[in-house]
Amino acid sequence: MSVNFFNHTDPQQFRLHLSLLRTQSLRLLAVLGQTGRPVSIVFMDDMEMAEYNQTYRHKEGATNVLSFPAETGGELGDILISVETAWREATEKGIRLDQHVTWLIIHGLLHLLGYDHERSEEQAELMQAKEEQLFQAIQYIHSGGRTMPQLAINVDHIATIREARGGAEPDPVLAAGICELAGAKGIVVHLREDRRHIQERDVRILRQTVKTRLNLEMAAVKEIVSIALEVKPDLVTLVPEKRQELTTEGGLDIVANEKKIRKTISKLAESDIPVSLFIDPCPEQIKAAVEVGATYVELHTGRYAEAKNQKEQDQEFHLIEQAAETAFAAGLHVNAGHGLDYRNVSRIAALSVIEELSIGHAVIARAAFVGLDQAVREMQDCIDLAG
Q1: In contact, 241 and 215? CB cutoff 8 Å
Q2: What is the C-alpha separation between 104 and 102, in angstroms, rounded?
Q3: Can you give the residue range of the structural domain that contains 102?
Q4: 117 flagged as catalytic
Q5: Which residue in 190, 197, 300, 333 is the catalytic one?
Q6: What pTM was estimated for this model as a whole?
C-alpha cells in the first residue's frame, strides 16, 4: 500500500474519515506523479506532536503538521499531523475536519518533495499556489465537478404493501436491487419495534445483497441495537419512534436524551458502525450531535416539504440551509430527508454540503404508475438538475 495510516488519536473524539483521507492521499500521489512511493501518515494529539516539535525543531508546543523525508530514494517519508490542532483550525475556518486534514496532507507531501515555505517569501507563495492547485484538483476528481448529493431509497413502503396482505410479496429485498440497478447509491430501511413493515429477516438478507450502502434506521432501544451489532449495516440512523405515528413525525431530541444516545453511539462505535442522528434543523441539536459522538446528522425536511405556501417553505428552507452549513462546519457529515418529492427535492439537492438524500414514499408512490426503475431514475434526474 502506497499510503500507510497510523492513528494515535481517540476515534470518538475526532472521528477522522479515514477511508476518504486514504482515497484523497492516493489521488494526490497520482497527481504528483509519485504513485508507488510509500508515505506514512501518523495522526496524533497535541501532546505527542509537541514532543516531536521540541525534539526535531527545538520549538515548544504543538504544530499542525511535520514532515520527515525518507533517507532512501524509494520511499517519500513520514507526515505527522496533530488532529487536535487541525480540529481547532478547521472550526475557526468553518470547514470540515477532513477537508483541513487533506490540506495538511498536501502541505506535508510538498515538504517531502522539496518545497519549503520557510526559505523565502517567493518559495512560500509558490508552495501556497501549489497547495491550492492540488486541493482543487483532487476535489474535482472526487466529485466529477460539482458535488451532488447521492440518492438513497427507503423501501419501507414496499414492505408495508406486503404486510397488508400478510404474504411474501412485494419483496423489499428485490425492490432494493431494482433501486440500485436504477442508480440509487444507498438503501434505507427502518426496523421498528412493532415490525409494522420491515422485518428482521429483511434486514439480514439486505445486509447480504445490498451492493451500495445499507442505512438502518432505528430507535435507540436495546433489542434493535443488538440486531444492528449482529448485522453491521454501513450506517445506523437513530430516529425517534412512536407506536401511534404513521411515519416519523420529527427529529430526535438529543439534548433531552443525551445519556441514552451517547451510550448507543458508543456501543455501535465498538463495532465500527458509524451513526447518523435524525434531527430537526436546530443549532442546539447539531451541537449536541457533536458532543455525543455522531458521525452524521440527517436533517429533517418534513416541515419544508409540508409548507402551505411559498413564504413558509422559504423560511423552512433557510433553516435547513443554515443547519447544514453549521453541521458541516462542526465536522459532521450531512444528509437530509423526509417528505421530499419530485417537486421540492431540487432546492435541497442544490445545497453543496449535503451528501445524501433519503427518499421513500414519493418514489414508491410514483412507481405505482411508471415502475420502480423509472421512478428512481426520474428522482435522480431531479437531483442532477439541481446542479
Answers
A1: no
A2: 5
A3: 3-143
A4: no
A5: 190
A6: 0.64
